Amino acid sequence: MYKFGINSICFSKDWPDDFSEIIKKAASIGYDTIELFTAFLLDKPKSTLDRYVKIAEDVEIELQFSTGLPAEHDISSESETIRRNGIEASKKTLEIINLMNGKIYAGLIYAAWGEKIEHINQKKVRRDISIKSMREIMQVAEDFGITCCVEVVNRFEQFLMNTSAEALEYVNEVDSPHLKVHLDTFHMNIEEHNLTDPILLAGDKLGVFHIGESNRHFPGMGSLPWDDIIKALNKVKFKGSLNFEPFIYFGGEVANAVGLYRDLTNGATQDQIDAFAIESLAFMKNRVSMLENQN
What we know:
It is built from ten helices and eight strands. By secondary structure, it is an alpha/beta fold. The protein has an eight-stranded parallel β-barrel, surrounded by six helices.
């Protein structure tokens, strides 16, 4: 049976200022891991970070970490100042993750979230810069024993890698045992020919797997072929957790960041949204269990 996780920014309309209650809620619902968005950890005192770790230990949930780099920390930037700022911010992030006993750092960690290029010829230049930066960052990750995972996202959120094949080539070129691929069913549904081949291609280089429907609702509340997806994960013997990343809240900072301009909850209350999280987790556990029993 897989572990199941959820992203910390899935429980509110706006970016969280404090993760304490979110960690408790994820554990109470039944999730095994929670991804903390690292942008909101960089300015926190050690006492606050220690508190998060203690809460997680008390409720028996694993802390994982993810981010989307801002423009001023773009490690693929042609500006040496911005690139260096990004490298140092990434190193600081890894130090914080290590302090919090984390072993997974994923997301859009290789370039700025939401950035576009004016000409396709820039892609190779920016990719080469990102790889050079990532090799330096990975030296710190290796020292801490942290696995970094580069997220494949759709063309509207980043230009550098939109397919599993592109991410695998990037990971192989950086050539660190602690760098892996991060796939997400929402992005795969936009960019890939199907939802199984990208998993099979990534194989043992797959480190993090996000799950959500084609409209970013909770798994089981849409049309994606979850049995086929789970079978592909089983085939490559995926060892990570299946991390839920639904974005359904309308009218807040998170919705603006992910481009959500309508209410996917149909006016649901917070209690009803929490029920979505419970029902979806039960749905995925049922599918995984059923397929395991068939083997």
